Amino acid sequence: MLDSRIHDNCTFAVKVIDGEVDAGHGFTVRASARCPHGCDLSGVAVTFRPPHGEPVTARLVQADDGGGYTTGEVTLTAPATAGLHGFTATIVPTAGGLAHSAPPADFEIAARAHSARLNPWDVPSAVVAGESFRFKVGVKCSADCNLAGRQVTLFDAQQRPVATAQLGDDIWPGTTALFFAEMTARAPKDAGRHGWTLAVPADDAGLPHAAGNATLSVNVVSAPECEVTIETVAREGQAPIAGARVVMHPYRAVSDERGIARLRVARGDYTILVSATRHLPIHREVTLTADLLTRAELDHEPPPANPDDFY
Question: Is residue 296's pLDDT more than 60?
Answer without folding.
Answer: yes
